[in-house]
Specification:
Layout lengths: L5 E4 L3 H10 L6 E4 L14 H6 L9 E3 L4 E2 L29 E3 L2 E3 L6 H14 L28 H12 L5 E2 L6 H6 L18 H9 L5 E4 L2 E8 L5 E8 L2 E5 L3 E4 L3 H10 L24 E8 L13 E3 L15 E4 L5 H8 L3 H10 L1 E7 L8 E5 L2 E5 L5 H17 L4 E6 L35 E3 L14 H19 L1
Parallel strand pairs: 1-2, 1-12, 2-8, 3-18, 12-20
Antiparallel strand pairs: 3-4, 5-6, 7-14, 9-10, 10-11, 13-16, 13-19, 14-15, 15-16, 17-18
Helix pairs in contact: 1-6, 1-11, 3-11, 8-9
Bound molecules: flavin-adenine dinucleotide.
Length: about 500
């Protein structure tokens, strides 16, 4: 290929989206992705292979805060973590961008407002073909128009749940989703949440962002290429990328470099790129790279009536945001509730140790919910690199708000006619909603990038992934990552004109 003018590191939500937005500029764009295309296989719809055997998990271990090794649920494929995602494509709420008091402390908000992001959310929803409906969710921020597509239909048991919740005074609403239901189900009658997308049924970074980018002849995707280090000159310009492909090292370069390796790996790559002029790592004069790691506080909740069955296949179509903006003892935000993809016996058994036969009795009847509360930024919650290995010391915060949300939803579900309600927190090996490790801000001594994603220290290095999020909100992050990537693309192309 010709000499690249822009190199994008990572083909996940941020990388694929920024490549799609920059493609029409005609610039030569090279996307470097360490993973390969996810091909169809019998395991792709096999819950035991996915959840019990960890078939798609990486052959990699990270260290936790106590130095113990663990295998992270962080996925390296073309399309990044979105290949496994639940395809929930929420906008952050207006309040998420402002200063907020939480049960566990204060969140400083963002250096930009919802209004700054709104036009980019419109574009991101169009690119990822979001299915949804306005009007029912009390926390929904203003939209310029309707969702691009009508909502994914509720299965009968979920439609009945919506009625029951409405009767208890709540406002259930359709979950905004990037799923082509017919296409997904044609590949197998399974949920999509946590399952690999090998049929294009999910609107993910590969099937939407990357597919759009690769329509342009000036865009090239190079898979199996691990970026090991970035090189900077004495003026702070990024002059090269040391990469390994098929076991061989080489150095690539481009006038503009966009880092979109995901919040943990972006921080790790900047830290691994330390040199004599930048002993703390690149883009790190603020000492903020790797800090403020956030992941949501999340629990699964199974609610059941012993005499009613739940034959749903995919289930994941409903959300409840009645406790998103308030709900705490002094009106503090508690978080979001949404359906999980239908939990089956192998999933429950592998995650809880419950024998398969009992797990089957439970999951034949249960409605399965996902409860999510905000994790607040903390400078001591951080990614570091120890002897080349990633160390993730996640200091979870605002847990009291999460417990309050769980308690509230247990009451709600019992009132709605489910006498048995079980819950279990998601464990720390699942950094699904990782963010915050290179946050954006106005002040170069307290943040890593400006409000468009350009690093304060290196004028030709941009960050377009979840690392820049200053707070985690309490809804799924991908659409916000995509909206940020589109803003970042505008900053890059305007700098060129
Ligand atoms: C099981 C699961 C379910 C989820 N469900 C949802 C959901 O329903 N809704 C939602 O909004 N979010 C969901 N998420 C989170 C969502 O996937 C992430 O927020 C999103 O993918 C983040 O985008 P990103 O660009 O920051 O990182 P990623 O999408 O992870 O992309 C990073 C890319 O960089 C590549 N890479 C990493 N290091 C290097 C390197 N050194 N060299 C070259 N390439 C590299 C990776 O292979 C990857 O392709 C889920 C995540 C998981 C794991």
């Amino acid at each position: 290929m010709p000499q690249p003018e822009i190199i994008v590191i990572g083909s996940g939500m941020g990388g694929a989206t920024i490549a799609a937005a920059l493609a029409p500029t005609g610039r030569q764009i090279l996307i470097l992705e360490r993973g390969e295309h996810l091909r169809d296989s019998p395991e792709a719809r096999d819950a035991t292979a996915i959840f019990a055997r960890g078939h798609f998990r990486p052959k990699e271990s990270w260290l936790d805060g106590q130095g113990r090794a663990f295998n992270p649920g962080n996925f390296y494929f073309v399309g990044g973590n979105t290949k496994m995602y639940g395809a929930v494509l929420f906008r952050f709420r207006e309040a998420d961008f402002s200063l907020n008091s939480h049960m566990g402390g204060t969140s400083a908000g963002w250096p930009v407002s919802y209004d700054d992001f709104a036009p980019y959310y419109d574009r991101a929803e169009a690119l990822y073909q979001v299915r949804g409906a306005l009007g029912a969710d009390p926390s929904e921020p203003p939209h310029a128009g309707d969702y691009p597509h009508p909502p994914v239909p509720d299965e009968p048991v979920i439609a009945d749940l919506a009625q029951r919740l409405r009767a208890s005074g709540l406002h259930p609403s359709p979950l905004p989703l990037g799923v082509d239901l017919d296409r997904w189900l044609a590949g197998g009658k399974t949920p999509w949440d946590g399952h690999p997308d090998t049929c294009g049924g999910k609107m993910d970074a590969e099937s939407c962002g990357l597919a759009e980018a690769l329509k342009y002849p000036n865009v090239t995707l190079q898979t199996g290429t691990h970026v090991d280090r970035l090189l900077a000159d004495e003026n702070g310009r990024i002059t090269g990328l040391e990469v390994t492909r098929d076991g061989l090292g080489e150095t690539l370069s481009a006038p503009v470099v966009v880092l979109a390796a995901g919040a943990v790996n972006t921080a790790a790559l900047l830290l691994r790129s330390a040199d004599a002029r930048h002993p703390a790592g690149l883009a790190n004069s603020s000492d903020q790279v790797g800090r403020n790691f956030m992941n949501h506080n999340a629990s699964a909740m199974l609610a059941l009536h012993p005499l009613r069955r739940n034959p749903s296949v995919y289930q994941k179509t409903l959300t409840v945001n009645d406790f998103y903006l308030d709900g705490g003892p002094y009106g503090e935000p508690l978080g979001n509730v949404q359906l999980l993809g239908k939990i089956s016996a192998p999933i429950l058994s592998s995650q809880s140790g419950i024998p398969l036969r009992i797990a089957k009795w439970i999951t034949d009847r249960s409605i399965d919910l996902y409860l999510m509360s905000e994790d607040l930024p903390d400078v001591d919650s951080r990614v570091t690199v120890k002897d080349g290995q990633i160390r993730l010391d996640w200091r979870r915060s605002n847990w009291e708000a999460h417990l309050a949300l769980v308690a509230k939803m247990k009451q709600v579900m019992r009132r709605a006619g489910f006498p048995v309600v079980l819950s279990k927190a998601f464990d720390r090996r699942t950094p699904s909603h990782q963010c915050g490790t290179a946050r954006m801000g106005w002040d170069s001594t307290r943040s890593v990038t400006d409000i468009w994603g350009r690093t304060h220290d290196h004028e030709n290095l941009f960050i377009a992934d979840a690392s820049v999020l200053p707070t985690s909100g309490a809804v799924n992050p991908s659409l916000t990552v995509a909206a940020h990537a589109l803003r970042c693309a505008d900053a890059i192309s305007e700098g060129w004109t």
